[in-house]
Amino acid sequence: MQPPLENQSIVLVFTLSGLNETMGKRFMFFSLTALYYPFIVLCNVIIIYTVISHKKLHEPMYVFICNLCMNGLFGTAGFYPKFMYDLLSQYHLISYAGCLVQIFVIYSSVLCDFSTLTVMAYDRYVAICRPLEYHSVMTNQRIIECILFCWLSPFFCMCVVIVLTSRLILCGSSIEKLYCENWSVVKLSCFSTTVNNVIGYVIIIIYFGHAVLIFCSYIHLIGKCRKSKEGRNKFIQTCVPHLLALLNVSFALLFDVLYTRYGSMTMPQDLRNFMALEFLLVPPMLNPLIYGLNLTKLRKEVLRLLKKEV
Question: Between the CA of residue 13 and those of 10, 16, 151, 235, 286, what are the distances in Å?
Protein backbone atom coordinates (compact mmCIF):
# COMPACT_ATOMS: atom_id res chain seq x y z
CA MET A 1 0.00 0.00 0.00
CA GLN A 2 1.40 3.37 -1.05
CA PRO A 3 1.81 6.10 1.60
CA PRO A 4 -0.51 9.11 1.33
CA LEU A 5 0.70 11.93 -0.89
CA GLU A 6 0.90 14.41 1.98
CA ASN A 7 3.78 12.39 3.50
CA GLN A 8 5.87 12.85 0.36
CA SER A 9 8.13 15.84 -0.16
CA ILE A 10 10.98 16.98 -2.33
CA VAL A 11 14.13 16.51 -0.25
CA LEU A 12 16.66 19.31 -0.77
CA VAL A 13 18.84 18.68 2.29
CA PHE A 14 19.77 15.58 4.29
CA THR A 15 20.59 15.51 7.99
CA LEU A 16 23.58 13.34 9.00
CA SER A 17 22.86 12.08 12.51
CA GLY A 18 25.96 9.92 13.03
CA LEU A 19 27.60 12.51 15.30
CA ASN A 20 24.59 13.30 17.47
CA GLU A 21 25.65 11.20 20.47
CA THR A 22 29.36 12.02 20.29
CA MET A 23 29.33 15.83 20.04
CA GLY A 24 30.96 16.07 23.47
CA LYS A 25 34.10 14.52 21.97
CA ARG A 26 34.01 16.46 18.69
CA PHE A 27 37.13 18.56 19.37
CA MET A 28 39.12 15.44 20.20
CA PHE A 29 37.87 13.78 17.00
CA PHE A 30 38.64 16.93 15.01
CA SER A 31 42.21 17.04 16.37
CA LEU A 32 42.80 13.36 15.55
CA THR A 33 41.31 13.77 12.06
CA ALA A 34 43.33 16.96 11.44
CA LEU A 35 46.47 14.89 12.09
CA TYR A 36 45.40 11.67 10.39
CA TYR A 37 44.03 13.01 7.09
CA PRO A 38 47.15 15.05 6.18
CA PHE A 39 49.24 11.99 7.04
CA ILE A 40 47.15 9.90 4.61
CA VAL A 41 47.68 12.55 1.92
CA LEU A 42 51.42 12.76 2.65
CA CYS A 43 52.01 9.00 2.50
CA ASN A 44 50.09 8.60 -0.77
CA VAL A 45 51.66 11.68 -2.38
CA ILE A 46 55.17 10.43 -1.49
CA ILE A 47 54.51 7.09 -3.21
CA ILE A 48 52.95 8.79 -6.26
CA TYR A 49 55.79 11.32 -6.60
CA THR A 50 58.46 8.64 -6.13
CA VAL A 51 56.99 6.41 -8.83
CA ILE A 52 56.45 9.27 -11.30
CA SER A 53 59.88 10.88 -10.79
CA HIS A 54 62.06 7.73 -11.07
CA LYS A 55 62.28 6.03 -14.45
CA LYS A 56 63.43 2.76 -12.90
CA LEU A 57 59.98 2.55 -11.26
CA HIS A 58 58.13 2.99 -14.56
CA GLU A 59 57.12 -0.67 -14.52
CA PRO A 60 53.54 -2.04 -14.52
CA MET A 61 53.58 -3.10 -10.85
CA TYR A 62 54.67 0.35 -9.64
CA VAL A 63 52.30 2.14 -12.01
CA PHE A 64 49.41 0.16 -10.52
CA ILE A 65 50.61 0.96 -6.98
CA CYS A 66 50.68 4.62 -7.99
CA ASN A 67 47.11 4.26 -9.27
CA LEU A 68 46.07 2.68 -5.96
CA CYS A 69 47.48 5.68 -4.07
CA MET A 70 45.81 8.19 -6.41
CA ASN A 71 42.53 6.42 -5.79
CA GLY A 72 43.15 6.64 -2.04
CA LEU A 73 43.42 10.43 -2.34
CA PHE A 74 40.28 10.56 -4.49
CA GLY A 75 38.15 8.52 -2.07
CA THR A 76 39.26 10.23 1.15
CA ALA A 77 38.68 13.67 -0.42
CA GLY A 78 35.01 12.71 -0.63
CA PHE A 79 34.77 12.20 3.13
CA TYR A 80 37.37 13.89 5.37
CA PRO A 81 36.91 17.61 4.49
CA LYS A 82 33.12 17.39 5.00
CA PHE A 83 33.59 15.30 8.17
CA MET A 84 35.98 17.86 9.66
CA TYR A 85 33.55 20.66 8.83
CA ASP A 86 30.71 18.75 10.53
CA LEU A 87 32.82 18.26 13.67
CA LEU A 88 32.99 22.02 14.08
CA SER A 89 29.40 22.70 13.05
CA GLN A 90 26.27 22.57 15.20
CA TYR A 91 24.15 21.31 12.31
CA HIS A 92 25.22 18.35 10.17
CA LEU A 93 23.55 18.94 6.83
CA ILE A 94 24.39 18.04 3.26
CA SER A 95 22.54 19.08 0.11
CA TYR A 96 20.75 16.47 -2.01
CA ALA A 97 23.23 16.96 -4.88
CA GLY A 98 26.18 16.98 -2.48
CA CYS A 99 24.95 13.71 -0.98
CA LEU A 100 24.82 12.00 -4.39
CA VAL A 101 28.29 13.32 -5.23
CA GLN A 102 29.66 11.99 -1.93
CA ILE A 103 28.10 8.56 -2.58
CA PHE A 104 29.64 8.52 -6.06
CA VAL A 105 33.14 9.53 -4.92
CA ILE A 106 33.40 7.27 -1.85
CA TYR A 107 31.98 4.11 -3.38
CA SER A 108 33.53 4.45 -6.85
CA SER A 109 36.85 4.75 -4.98
CA VAL A 110 36.19 1.48 -3.12
CA LEU A 111 35.28 -0.30 -6.36
CA CYS A 112 38.38 1.18 -8.02
CA ASP A 113 40.45 -0.43 -5.24
CA PHE A 114 39.06 -3.83 -6.22
CA SER A 115 39.65 -3.19 -9.94
CA THR A 116 43.24 -2.05 -9.31
CA LEU A 117 44.01 -5.06 -7.11
CA THR A 118 42.56 -7.29 -9.85
CA VAL A 119 44.86 -5.91 -12.57
CA MET A 120 47.77 -6.13 -10.11
CA ALA A 121 46.98 -9.82 -9.64
CA TYR A 122 46.97 -10.26 -13.42
CA ASP A 123 50.33 -8.49 -13.63
CA ARG A 124 51.83 -10.77 -10.95
CA TYR A 125 50.40 -13.85 -12.67
CA VAL A 126 52.09 -12.93 -15.95
CA ALA A 127 55.36 -11.98 -14.21
CA ILE A 128 55.63 -15.25 -12.27
CA CYS A 129 53.94 -17.80 -14.54
CA ARG A 130 54.94 -16.40 -17.95
CA PRO A 131 58.17 -14.47 -17.27
CA LEU A 132 59.54 -14.80 -20.82
CA GLU A 133 56.37 -13.27 -22.27
CA TYR A 134 56.00 -10.57 -19.61
CA HIS A 135 57.22 -7.55 -21.61
CA SER A 136 55.33 -8.61 -24.72
CA VAL A 137 52.10 -9.00 -22.71
CA MET A 138 52.38 -6.01 -20.35
CA THR A 139 52.94 -3.39 -23.02
CA ASN A 140 52.28 0.34 -22.53
CA GLN A 141 48.97 -0.07 -24.34
CA ARG A 142 47.94 -2.93 -22.04
CA ILE A 143 48.85 -0.85 -18.98
CA ILE A 144 46.70 2.06 -20.23
CA GLU A 145 43.83 -0.36 -20.86
CA CYS A 146 44.18 -1.71 -17.31
CA ILE A 147 44.19 1.80 -15.80
CA LEU A 148 41.07 2.73 -17.81
CA PHE A 149 39.39 -0.47 -16.60
CA CYS A 150 40.25 0.44 -12.99
CA TRP A 151 38.48 3.79 -13.24
CA LEU A 152 35.79 3.50 -15.91
CA SER A 153 34.09 0.32 -14.69
CA PRO A 154 33.53 1.69 -11.14
CA PHE A 155 32.42 5.05 -12.56
CA PHE A 156 29.90 3.29 -14.83
CA CYS A 157 28.54 1.15 -11.98
CA MET A 158 28.16 4.12 -9.66
CA CYS A 159 26.55 6.26 -12.39
CA VAL A 160 23.88 3.56 -12.75
CA VAL A 161 23.41 3.49 -8.96
CA ILE A 162 23.18 7.30 -8.69
CA VAL A 163 20.67 7.56 -11.57
CA LEU A 164 18.43 4.92 -9.96
CA THR A 165 18.67 6.59 -6.54
CA SER A 166 17.99 10.06 -7.93
CA ARG A 167 14.68 8.83 -9.39
CA LEU A 168 13.31 7.81 -5.98
CA ILE A 169 10.61 9.84 -4.22
CA LEU A 170 11.73 10.16 -0.61
CA CYS A 171 9.64 10.31 2.57
CA GLY A 172 12.45 11.29 4.91
CA SER A 173 15.71 13.22 5.09
CA SER A 174 17.64 11.76 8.04
CA ILE A 175 20.71 9.60 7.35
CA GLU A 176 22.00 7.77 10.43
CA LYS A 177 25.65 7.84 9.38
CA LEU A 178 28.59 10.24 9.28
CA TYR A 179 28.40 10.50 5.50
CA CYS A 180 25.97 9.82 2.66
CA GLU A 181 25.66 6.16 1.79
CA ASN A 182 23.46 4.85 -1.00
CA TRP A 183 21.46 2.29 0.95
CA SER A 184 20.71 4.85 3.67
CA VAL A 185 19.15 7.11 1.01
CA VAL A 186 17.30 4.25 -0.71
CA LYS A 187 15.69 3.25 2.61
CA LEU A 188 14.02 6.67 2.72
CA SER A 189 12.04 5.92 -0.45
CA CYS A 190 8.26 6.09 -0.26
CA PHE A 191 7.79 3.30 -2.76
CA SER A 192 9.36 0.01 -3.89
CA THR A 193 13.14 -0.10 -4.24
CA THR A 194 13.38 -3.56 -5.81
CA VAL A 195 15.34 -2.36 -8.85
CA ASN A 196 17.84 -0.50 -6.65
CA ASN A 197 18.26 -3.58 -4.45
CA VAL A 198 18.84 -5.90 -7.39
CA ILE A 199 21.38 -3.60 -9.06
CA GLY A 200 23.11 -3.03 -5.72
CA TYR A 201 23.48 -6.75 -5.07
CA VAL A 202 24.66 -7.37 -8.65
CA ILE A 203 27.45 -4.80 -8.23
CA ILE A 204 28.41 -6.23 -4.82
CA ILE A 205 28.57 -9.77 -6.27
CA ILE A 206 30.62 -8.60 -9.27
CA TYR A 207 33.25 -6.88 -7.14
CA PHE A 208 33.46 -9.56 -4.50
CA GLY A 209 33.82 -11.87 -7.50
CA HIS A 210 36.95 -9.85 -8.30
CA ALA A 211 38.30 -10.80 -4.87
CA VAL A 212 37.49 -14.49 -5.37
CA LEU A 213 39.22 -14.39 -8.77
CA ILE A 214 42.34 -12.85 -7.21
CA PHE A 215 42.46 -15.47 -4.43
CA CYS A 216 42.09 -18.28 -6.98
CA SER A 217 44.91 -16.86 -9.12
CA TYR A 218 47.11 -16.58 -6.03
CA ILE A 219 46.44 -20.19 -5.06
CA HIS A 220 47.77 -21.07 -8.52
CA LEU A 221 50.77 -18.77 -7.98
CA ILE A 222 51.58 -20.40 -4.63
CA GLY A 223 51.73 -23.79 -6.33
CA LYS A 224 53.98 -22.35 -9.03
CA CYS A 225 56.31 -20.54 -6.60
CA ARG A 226 56.88 -23.51 -4.29
CA LYS A 227 59.11 -25.12 -6.90
CA SER A 228 61.99 -22.63 -6.53
CA LYS A 229 63.51 -20.45 -3.85
CA GLU A 230 63.61 -17.48 -6.24
CA GLY A 231 59.89 -17.92 -6.95
CA ARG A 232 59.07 -18.05 -3.25
CA ASN A 233 61.04 -14.86 -2.60
CA LYS A 234 59.33 -13.07 -5.48
CA PHE A 235 55.91 -14.18 -4.22
CA ILE A 236 56.60 -13.07 -0.64
CA GLN A 237 57.93 -9.67 -1.69
CA THR A 238 55.39 -8.71 -4.34
CA CYS A 239 52.29 -10.81 -3.74
CA VAL A 240 51.93 -10.95 0.05
CA PRO A 241 51.48 -7.12 0.30
CA HIS A 242 48.89 -7.40 -2.46
CA LEU A 243 46.99 -10.09 -0.52
CA LEU A 244 47.11 -7.99 2.66
CA ALA A 245 45.70 -4.99 0.77
CA LEU A 246 42.98 -7.17 -0.76
CA LEU A 247 41.97 -8.71 2.58
CA ASN A 248 41.91 -5.26 4.13
CA VAL A 249 39.61 -3.63 1.57
CA SER A 250 37.42 -6.77 1.21
CA PHE A 251 36.70 -7.10 4.93
CA ALA A 252 36.24 -3.33 5.27
CA LEU A 253 33.66 -3.17 2.48
CA LEU A 254 31.93 -6.38 3.59
CA PHE A 255 31.73 -4.92 7.09
CA ASP A 256 30.14 -1.74 5.74
CA VAL A 257 27.66 -3.54 3.47
CA LEU A 258 26.49 -5.97 6.16
CA TYR A 259 26.30 -3.30 8.86
CA THR A 260 24.41 -0.83 6.64
CA ARG A 261 21.80 -3.37 5.60
CA TYR A 262 21.53 -5.59 8.67
CA GLY A 263 23.22 -3.71 11.54
CA SER A 264 21.50 -3.19 14.87
CA MET A 265 20.70 0.29 16.17
CA THR A 266 21.19 -0.98 19.74
CA MET A 267 24.97 -0.92 19.30
CA PRO A 268 26.86 2.08 20.80
CA GLN A 269 27.12 4.90 18.26
CA ASP A 270 30.92 5.12 18.56
CA LEU A 271 31.18 1.46 17.55
CA ARG A 272 28.69 1.92 14.71
CA ASN A 273 30.66 4.92 13.45
CA PHE A 274 33.93 2.98 13.49
CA MET A 275 32.35 0.07 11.61
CA ALA A 276 31.00 2.48 8.99
CA LEU A 277 34.35 4.27 8.64
CA GLU A 278 36.76 1.32 8.63
CA PHE A 279 37.22 1.29 4.85
CA LEU A 280 37.88 5.06 4.89
CA LEU A 281 40.33 4.85 7.80
CA VAL A 282 42.52 1.81 7.15
CA PRO A 283 43.01 1.07 3.40
CA PRO A 284 44.06 4.62 2.36
CA MET A 285 46.80 4.56 4.99
CA LEU A 286 47.72 0.88 4.87
CA ASN A 287 48.20 0.65 1.10
CA PRO A 288 51.09 3.15 0.76
CA LEU A 289 52.71 1.78 3.94
CA ILE A 290 52.46 -1.86 2.82
CA TYR A 291 53.98 -1.23 -0.59
CA GLY A 292 56.34 1.55 0.43
CA LEU A 293 57.94 -0.50 3.19
CA ASN A 294 57.88 -3.96 1.65
CA LEU A 295 58.99 -3.49 -1.97
CA THR A 296 62.77 -3.06 -1.85
CA LYS A 297 63.18 -0.90 -4.95
CA LEU A 298 60.34 1.42 -3.99
CA ARG A 299 61.46 1.62 -0.34
CA LYS A 300 65.01 2.62 -1.35
CA GLU A 301 63.74 5.43 -3.58
CA VAL A 302 61.33 6.68 -0.90
CA LEU A 303 64.09 6.73 1.72
CA ARG A 304 66.42 8.50 -0.72
CA LEU A 305 63.73 11.10 -1.38
CA LEU A 306 63.10 11.66 2.34
CA LYS A 307 66.85 12.01 3.08
CA LYS A 308 67.18 14.52 0.29
CA GLU A 309 64.30 16.59 1.70
CA VAL A 310 65.75 16.47 5.21
Answer: 9, 10, 29, 50, 34
